[in-house]
Design brief:
Length: 551
């Protein structure tokens, strides 16, 4: 055989073997970055320059486990341009050099933010401020434009309030909303290859703030503004519940044509730690990774630090902490295992479905809503319990009535005076579904004759001293059209309204009266609309409004 023919044969054999073996498969025990790479995703960590230069354990884990890094503080404006025109890249360069040595990417954080920006910027007039912003972006992004390590930037950070209004930062107050488009254009001019992101917190689920973000990204892209990516920070807390619609939310952004990513994941708890809290935290971490795994346009997940030894949480939320995946002694926590297994797992490795949920029991049945609760399932297949699907038994095809990440659900939009037979199936991280639970049967109440009205409020989003109720769904549960509605409900003692949308709200003591806006009072029989509101509450008080009635 001629040597060229032999070479061709060997090449063909090699290609055949490569076809049989997954090119990027990772050993089960491999570090996080190998499993992430096998999925085509990154797994990142925010790094602090102090321990990076002082602590071997910190450096070793940062190197071994993560494929992307973000500077926790070193690339912010107060670090890079503390005085006008005086740039200092010592911390930023330390992070970039570390990443380059370890074959990691850097996500740049952050160019334009209301926090950690020196006073000299905040005091400028409009023209000077816009020029300073453009120059800062040009210098900082430009420094790393030809460096293949720095692949993306948070161009603007936290531009919204939690109610979806623009944050009235000094940027907005001085320049109006146009500073956002200008910042993206300046970043593109400085680096035509970097991926340019808008980043925020409390936008993981579908709520007023994430919808405002969605509308802004959509409108900027229609105007040709180079927004390539949306970052969901992911500062979660086990005591406030998991945003069960995170995957759906990421997907709606992906459908706009942008890349999505989780940029600052940490999941705090009230101290002290215990096994139950660790388990809940691990489930939340797993759910986030699984959501990113399930959305093709999700590039990866960055954890905001990795060791509880260095976390911003205890300094900001008194009495809370333990938010990361290694403890203060660099020992892996259950949350590490959850992240690892969610990255490593998948439909091929976990084929064991969760156990069958208990028989649901119904409560709070109204003319159009009902609450179901059941005994939780467990999952032993490795990918972990992800949530539950609730179905209506109807024969050949049973419609899904809803999804929940806990062992309870509030079903809305039901038909008055109708018998429902429902069952629940548990879902794991690999998509395996359990057997059907036994059936529960309930009958919705009669709707009023003529026009009627029912209201159900859902808490979408909570933080230490506030929350957003969105949507409050208002349904015409009667048999003829209505031309206006009034919803009343009660705020817990000490809670105060901080904003509202799509209705006019007035308060008398703790009683709130919400009247339709001019554009959403007319409801045909069976039709729904919604409004939302934001509340400030005493720190840590987890009560929520009650007693929604509608007339
Ligand atoms: O560097 C000074 C030091 O010289 C001084 O002695 C010390 C005294 O307090 O402060 C040091 O600065 C601190 C800095 O972190 C560096 O450690 C600041 O006080 C402190 O406020 C700052 O906190 C950072 C915070 O952003 C500031 O807003 C946190 O480390 C950082 O994790 C946090 O990260 C933000 C993201 O950038 C955006 N999203 C939310 C996230 C959490 O707040």
């Amino acid at each position: 055989m001629r040597s060229s023919s032999l070479l061709r044969l060997l090449t063909l054999v090699g290609m055949f073997v490569a076809f049989l073996l997954p090119a990027t498969s990772a050993q089960a025990s491999a570090p996080l970055r190998e499993h992430a790479a096998a999925r085509g995703k990154f797994i990142g960590a925010a790094l602090a320059t102090g321990p990076l230069s002082n602590e071997t354990s910190y450096r070793n884990i940062a190197t071994t486990e993560f494929s992307q890094v973000t500077a926790e503080n070193a690339m912010k404006w107060d670090a890079t341009e503390p005085s006008q025109g005086q740039f200092n890249f010592s911390g930023a360069d330390a992070i970039v050099n570390f990443a380059t040595q370890n074959n990691q990417q850097v996500h740049g954080h952050t160019l334009v933010w209301h926090s950690q920006t020196p006073g000299w910027v905040q005091g400028l007039g409009a023209t000077a401020m816009r020029t300073a912003m453009q120059n800062h972006i040009s210098q900082v992004v430009g420094r790393y434009a030809s460096n293949a390590t720095v692949v993306s930037w948070d161009v603007v950070n936290e531009v919204f309030d939690d109610n979806g209004n623009m944050r009235t930062s000094f940027w907005y107050n001085t320049l109006g909303q146009s500073y956002i488009a200008d910042a993206f254009r300046a970043a593109r001019a400085a680096d035509s290859n970097a991926r340019l992101c808008i980043n925020d917190y409390n936008v993981e689920g579908i709520n007023a703030k994430s919808t405002a973000m969605y509308n802004l990204v959509s409108s900027l892209r229609q105007q040709g503004v180079p927004v390539d990516c949306v970052g969901f920070q992911g500062h979660l807390a086990i005591q406030y519940g998991f945003p069960g619609d995170i995957q759906q939310n990421m997907q709606r952004f992906a459908d706009l044509g942008v890349q999505v990513r989780v940029t600052e994941l940490d999941i705090r708890m009230q101290m002290p730690r215990d096994t139950a809290k660790d388990t809940t935290q691990a489930t939340y971490y797993r759910n986030v990774i699984n959501a990113c795994n399930a959305v093709t346009a999700c590039a990866g997940v960055t954890i905001w630090g990795f060791t509880d030894k260095y976390s911003w949480v205890p300094d900001t939320f008194s009495g809370q902490g333990a938010a990361l995946i290694y403890d203060e002694n660099y020992q892996q926590k259950p949350s590490y295992t959850a992240v690892h297994d969610a990255l490593a797992g998948g439909s091929s490795s976990d084929t064991t479905p969760p156990t069958t949920p208990g028989t649901p029991t119904s409560s709070s049945v109204t003319s159009n809503s009902a609450t179901l609760t059941w005994t939780a399932s467990t999952d032993s297949g490795g990918s972990g319990l992800a949530g539950y699907n609730v179905y209506r038994e109807q024969g050949a095809t049973d419609p899904q009535l809803g999804q929940s990440s806990t062992n309870s659900i509030n079903l809305t939009g039901l038909t008055p005076n109708t018998q429902y037979q429902v069952y629940v199936r548990a879902r794991d991280g690999a998509g395996n579904l359990s057997a059907n639970s036994a059936l529960a049967t309930f009958t919705t109440q009669s709707g009023p004759v003529g026009g009627g009205c029912a209201a159900v409020g859902t808490v979408q989003n909570q933080w230490n001293n506030g929350y957003v109720v969105q949507p409050v769904t208002v349904t015409n549960s009667g048999s003829s059209a209505i031309t206006g509605w009034t919803v009343t409900f009660t705020l817990p003692a000490g809670h105060t309204l901080a904003g509202s949308w799509n209705a006019t709200l007035t308060t008398s003591g703790q009683t709130v009266t919400a009247r339709n806006a001019g554009y959403n009072g007319n409801l045909a029989a069976g039709a729904s609309t919604s409004f939302g509101f934001q509340v400030t509450r005493p720190s840590g008080d987890t009560q929520t409004p009650s007693g929604y009635t509608c007339a």
